[in-house]
Design goal:
CATH architecture of the largest domain: 3-Layer(aba) Sandwich
Structural class: alpha+beta
Number of helices: 10
Shape: globular
CATH superfamily of the largest domain: Glutaredoxin
Oligomer: single chain
C-alpha cells in the first residue's frame, strides 16, 4: 500500500470516553489532580454530555483530576486539529503562582476526549518551539553554525540555575567545542527580590561588552549567596571596576533601567514557550526542566548531532551564507 506524502503520527497518552467515567474514577483519584488539592465534588447540575461544550468539558476534567473550586480554569476556543475528524482545545489550570496546561483532541460528535499531542512525521517534532524561539541578540558562547543549540532560560538568584550554569559553562566547551552553541535568556522569577535588577544589569553589560557578559554571568552565580537586594548595585559596581568596564556608561544604563524592555521581552518569550520554572533549557527545541544531570544533557546532544546530519531541521543559523555582488548582474 502506497503511503501518503504527509503522515501525521498521534501519540495517544490516554483515550477518555465520556461513557467510561466510572471506570477511570478510582485510578485518577489515587493519582491526584493537577495540584493534589482537597476535592470538593459538585453536588448539583446535570451530567456532562458534550465535550464541545466548555462547561461540560470543565466539569468532566475537574472530576478527572480532582480539582477543587480554588483552582481557576481557562479553556481556549476549539479549533480544527491537524488530525482529520478531531478538534483541539487547551485546558489551563491556575492556583496562585502555579499553573499547568494540557492539550486535548475532541471528536466532532463531542463524545470522546483524547489527551495527547500529534506530530507530523515530515517536520521536526519540536518545530513549534523552534518557530517561537528567537536567539537574535542574546548572549551566546560556542561555535556559530553548530548543529545543536541550547537556549537557557535562567534566573541569577536561582540556586539550581547556578549549578546548571556551571555545568554548561565547563562541559560544553570541553566536550562540544564545534557542535553546540548556548544562548542565555533572562527569566527572573517574581519571588526572587534582586533577580530582575540583576538581569537588567546583565543586559547593560552585554550591550557594553558582549564578552564581559559571560564574566558577569559566572561571577554573579558564584557569588549568589553574598548578594542581596540592598547590596546588588554596589556589588555590580565593584565587579565593573575590577574588570575594567566603563562605569560612566554602565551606571546610567542600570540606574535608568535602559535594558528593561529587553528583559521583559525575554520573559514574554519564555511564557510563550511555556516556561514555568528555572532553569529551563531547549536543546534544539526539546524542553528540559530543572537541574538536569550532564549525562542526560549529553545523551540528548549526541542524539541531536546524529539526527541533524540527516534532517538538518534545527541548529544554529550563523548567518554565514553571504551573497556577493557580481559585476554585470542585477
Amino acid at each position: 500500500m502506497k503511503r501518503p506524502p504527509s503522515v501525521s503520527v498521534m501519540l495517544v497518552l490516554g483515550v477518555l470516553v465520556l461513557a467510561a467515567v466510572l471506570g477511570t474514577q478510582s485510578v485518577h483519584a489515587q493519582q491526584g489532580g493537577f495540584f493534589e488539592p482537597e476535592p470538593e465534588p459538585a453536588t448539583e447540575g446535570t451530567p456532562p454530555e458534550n465535550a464541545l461544550d466548555k462547561s461540560d468539558l470543565e466539569f468532566f476534567l475537574r472530576h478527572l483530576y480532582v480539582m477543587n473550586p480554588g483552582i481557576d480554569v481557562e479553556i481556549t476556543d476549539y479549533k480544527p486539529s491537524s488530525i482529520d475528524g478531531l478538534m483541539e482545545v487547551t485546558f489551563k489550570a491556575t492556583q496562585g503562582n502555579r499553573a499547568q496546561q494540557r492539550s486535548y483532541f475532541i471528536s466532532k460528535d463531542g463524545r470522546s476526549i483524547i489527551e495527547g499531542r500529534s506530530y507530523e512525521i515530515t517536520k521536526n517534532p519540536f518545530h513549534e518551539n523552534l518557530d517561537k524561539l528567537s536567539n537574535l541578540g542574546r548572549p551566546a558562547f560556542g561555535k556559530e553554525g553548530a548543529p545543536v543549540v541550547i537556549a537557557v532560560f535562567s534566573d541569577f538568584q536561582c540556586p539550581y540555575c547556578a549549578k546548571e550554569a556551571k555545568v554548561l559553562r565547563t562541559q560544553v566547551a570541553q566536550d562540544y567545542p564545534d557542535n553546540v552553541r548556548v544562548y542565555f535568556h533572562d527569566y527572573p522569577l517574581k519571588r526572587h527580590k534582586w533577580a530582575y535588577q540583576a538581569a537588567v544589569a546583565g543586559q547593560c553589560i552585554q550591550q557594553l561588552d558582549p564578552q564581559a557578559f559571560w564574566t558577569y554571568h559566572d561571577w554573579i552565580f558564584e557569588n549568589q549567596r553574598s548578594i542581596t537586594e540592598q547590596n546588588l548595585d554596589d556589588k555590580v559596581g565593584e565587579f565593573a571596576s575590577a574588570h575594567g568596564l566603563d562605569t560612566l556608561k554602565l551606571s546610567p544604563c542600570i540606574e535608568r533601567q535602559e535594558t528593561k524592555p529587553g528583559v521583559d521581552e525575554s520573559i514574554r518569550l519564555g511564557r510563550d514557550l511555556g516556561v514555568r520554572s528555572t532553569p529551563t533549557m531547549y536543546v534544539n527545541g526539546r524542553r528540559l526542566t530543572g537541574n538536569v544531570r550532564w549525562a542526560q544533557i549529553k545523551q540528548v546532544i549526541d542524539y541531536e548531532i546524529a539526527y541533524q546530519k540527516v534532517t538538518r531541521n534545527a541548529g544554529d543559523d550563523c548567518g554565514c551564507q553571504v551573497e556577493l555582488d557580481i559585476p554585470g548582474q542585477e
